[in-house]
Amino acid sequence: MAIFLIIVGQNMGMRFVADRFQHSLETIDRHFHSTLKAICKLGKDIIRPTQTPLPSRIINSSKYYPWFQNCIGAIDGTHVSACVPQDKQVSYRGRKGVVTQNVLCACNFDMFFTFVSAGWEGTANDSRIFIDAITKPEYKFPLPKEGEYYVVDSGFPCTKGFLPPYRGERYHLQEYNNGGNRPRGKKELFNYRHSSLRNVIERCFGVLKARFPILKMMPRYKLSRQTLIVIACCTLHNFIRQRTHHDHMFREWEEKEFEEEDNTERASTSVSRSEVNLSDESAAAMARSRDRIAQAMWSAYTNRN
Hints:
Strand order of the largest sheet: 3-2-1-4-5
Strand content: 5-15%
Structural class: alpha/beta
Number of helices: 11
Mean pLDDT: 87
Helix content: 40-55%
């Protein structure tokens, strides 16, 4: 375990670790791989939805409650470093020209990951990964119960159980945080609070990458191992959050609000609608629910101000 943690937590090379632990490269690699598989096996039990109530900081905030009382978490994608053969670099090279793998995650408001899908090419857009996750049973995506939903960004479809912001309106927090830029209508107010609530997934990514620098500079492992490393790091993230209530990294990132990552461009995706209702009727129903929330939120806001 110590060998594994020093590699993923400090991104130490195999030769350095072999010298430090006074073992051969073969022994270090064998122990690393066996620990990696064991932690990923643990991830099947620890990366899952929990029945915890909304945190008090949400329930006690008029900014979020009761408007988002049925929200169970946030979903977004993030890019982590990848090291791939030359003939595969085109598909893994994202818009910024960096070779990455795209990872789709869901989290709750206690900063636990509840779903992780890793190993996608850096050019794969979040919408495509999301559709695969919710429509293919093998992914075992934790679909929301009736009346519940996740908050997602505008690159994801508006459908039952998944609530995006209004398109064509100001959304990102930095657009409102510049002095005097108050919301100018119900759609902007909804978008501002939606963005602030969804920022929890960005904070999770921030903690994850700060704690495990291997995700920023992936060694030359084969692709299957690189995928497992991402899942193992997410598993350890949840384990630390579960067992350590005063972890300094979580304290540092817990209340931060910062700009979301500039992910690869999200194109529209044609999909099978077998498991999840992605019909026009479902989209219209979720849009009506969003309108009701936005109108009630705006009425309370204008009355108070």
